Amino acid sequence: MKALAARRHHPLAFVAILLLALVATGGLYAAFQPRSAQAESYSQDDVDKGEELFLANCASCHGTNAQGMQDDSGNTLGPSLIGVGAAAVDFQVGTGRMPMQNSGAQAWRKPPQMNDEQTRQLAAYVASLGPGPSVPDEEALSSKDADLENGGNIFRVNCAMCHNAAGAGGALTRGKFAPSLSGVESKHIYEAMETGPQNMPVFNDDNISASDKRDVVAYLKALDEQGSPGGISLGSFGPVTEGLYAWTIVLSLLVGCAVWLGAKAK
Amino acid sequence: MATTTPTRPSTEAPEDSGSEGRMLKLGAVGGDWLDRRVSGAGLVRFFGRKIFPDHWSFMFGEVALYSFVILLISGTYLTMFFVPSMDEVVYDGIYAPLQGAHMSKAYESTLHISFEVKGGLLFRQMHHWSCLVFMVAIFVHMFRVFFTGAFRKPRELNWLVGFALMVLGMVAGFTGYSLPDDVLSGNGLRVVDGLMKGIPIVGTYISMLLFGGEFPGHDIIPRFFTIHILLVPAAILGLIAIHMVMLVLHKHTQYPGPGRTERNVVGFPVFPVYAAKAGGFFFLVFGIITLISATTAINSIWVYGPYDPSPVSAGSQPDWYMLWTDGGLRLIPGWEFTIFGYTVSLNILLPMVVYGGLLAFLALYPFIESWVTGDDREHHLLDLPYNAPVRTGIGVAWITEYLILAMAATNDLIAVKLHLSINDLTWTFRIAFFLAPVIVFYITKRLCLAMQRQKRDLALHGEETSKVVRMENGEMIEIHEPLNEFDRWVLVQHDDYRPLKAGKGVSALRAAATSFFFKDQLAPVTPTELREALEHAGHERHKIDELTGGDYRTPDVRSH
Ligand code: HEM
């Protein structure tokens, strides 16, 4: 209902907004364009601690210098991490995918094994190896004046074919899958787009600009927040789950009534 | 107890006893009241006194009927707000994530109904849920009719009318969920467009004709609107009327039971007992659908977004009753070849042939079966499914094929939920498409025969009591409790069919077909067999009684 009230503005407000927007665009352009260069500052201490952690937890697969490793038959144990950037580490470690446990079709999300501090230190170490996307800051994620419509549109065109329109997840070939996006932290959504984990393509700033990424994040957060206006969402998988529901729960209710009515009053 | 009305007019008044009698009198009074106010008194009496047998499995036709009524009511409400137009507008409604989006008026008005019209979302969800329930009820009803052999003479035509209703239900559903013009329904239309274009030579023209030009065009929504709210419902209503008139003319079938014959119907009179039950049932169905619609989301079109040909979401599936039509397309390899400059898309044509074949088989089954059995009698007593093993097997095999197609259409969801490879699943379904129906047919038939054998034993020897008596010579005899005559009747009443021999006007094909149907059939218990079994049981009983003095308690219990 807040949204409804918010739409009822004075006609002049439009002019004011237009002016503001013009002014803001210049500023925003300056603020957002050189994003990839703007790196988070890590101290040398962070890098050193990160290297320690890396040697203890990651080197077995990624190699002692993060240069990547292969087993005897030439299968990759872990790819090179040089130049993947702090964003990749923050995403992989922050969502619990790394350190990877079992080799399967794909590394799964699990409860993170590193705390925020350790994740930061690991990111600092990997970032020190070569330039790459950095962890997005608050401002890049702020949904304050994000354009939800734009975010939704970009999401439906670029992401829904793998992740489903409601972000409920979907299958890829050979047992790989695009996971559900509900409840994923904003910065991890942003980082996923920037780094393209595993079978997900990389959406760099040329494909989807920084402000578009912010809109996508805001859209996904809005979907999460609004929940399902129609009631139980059945996982948002669409007609199939709805059909199953009709054949199980609704049909048993109906059969129950039919049996009850059909039972002769003996 | 229920009443029996002879099929032929009879002057005998039904027995007047106890509360049942009072109920009947109520019926008579009610009928009389109506008689005096409505001309055509005979007609009213005719309907009011009709007998309807009572069994829960007979109530799914009613569920279909009631959910259709709910569809009409909720649909009427929706037409007051829906705008069947593909003109483009910019959304400025209350749903924030779409503000400023370009969309068709159809989509905009659906958002409006969902978020701004009082009770709009509830009505939308009721309309869609009752559609799903309608189709579920039709399928359950249809297979009740199939497995009990209710489609046999004289009801073959009514089976065909019902079949037409099932197909019309699918058309109604498809045209309905295409109306909101969201991405999901647009994808569905795209598939239909592809199916039509796959027809050699004329395909492109048909598609152009339907869409009024190149897909998606600007005409499809208004056209579907007319089909969906006028043509199809009118056709369904008309066919339901024919279905019901035929039902009344044929009278309802009944399960075999004592006192139930091919010439009577045992049950309750329509007025007042059945009318009260049916009325109550309507409100129950209404209540259940309303409850589900108020609590469970369906077709959240704002998530799918306004139609735009580029995006296709993962997990794009049609409503359940159309799923099977998608399955074949997902299973078939991409077979195509070019001949005289025309592309022949086997990957579209073959699935369509399969779909047509499955439907045609279902529609024609009553005629196929009566040709095989040569059974030209009228049947008003139903078959118990295990007494018709081949028919039951065929029905279960058909359902299996249908399910495999439907599951193939959901292969991506199954893959995600069960963490399987979608490629493996596709291959599994491809193999299952050919093997599963055969295996399932065989297993079902065997199970039916096993049940026949078990029921036969039961009819002859009665129920095992698990009380065993050791005779003086060491022989162990289990005490059997004979069935009462009512229960036994149900087990021994069915017909006996034998395979035909070729020759004497019987073609080899038909002889083979009857042999396929009946060669393993167990003969029902004959009176002689039954007499012998009863005599034997009496004899055994006598021996046991002599030994125990008629007291069947075990010695330790007896000594207390
Ligand atoms: C709009 C859909 C339908 C409606 C509203 C409907 C309604 C009914 C009702 C109320 C009855 C009597 C109660 C009962 O036996 O369940 C009935 C009987 C019957 N229906 Fe349907 N039906 C529909 C679809 C079908 C379909 C799809 C078939 C089969 C292809 C079918 C075949 C029959 C037959 C053969 C009977 C007579 C059954 C008997 O006397 O035992 N109907 N229908």
Description:
Chain B: It holds the Pfam family Cytochrom_B_N_2. Chain B: Residues 1-10 have a biased composition (Polar residues). The complex is a heterodimer of chains A (266) and B (560). Chain A is mainly alpha-helical and 266 residues long. Chain A folds into 2 domains: 37-135, Cytochrome Bc1 Complex, Chain D, domain 2, CATH 1.10.760; 144-253, Cytochrome Bc1 Complex, Chain D, domain 2. Chain A contains 12 helices and 4 strands, in the order ααααββαααααββααα. Chain A has helices at residues 2-7, 11-32, 44-57, 59-62, 85-94, 116-129, 138-141, 148-158, 160-163, 186-195, 210-226, 239-262; strands at 69-70, 76-78, 170-171, 177-178. In chain A, α5 packs antiparallel against α6 (116-129), α5 (85-94) crosses α10 and α10 packs across α11 (210-226). Chain A is globular. The termini of chain A are far apart. Chain B is mainly α and 560 residues long. Chain B has 3 domains: 2-39; 61-302, Cytochrome Bc1 Complex, Chain C; 446-558, no CATH class. Chain B has 20 helices and 9 strands. In chain B, β8 and β9 (476-481) form a beta hairpin. Chain B is globular. The model of chain B is unreliable at 1-21 (pLDDT under 50). The chains are: A mainly alpha (266), B mainly alpha (560). The interface between A and B is large, with 64 and 76 residues.
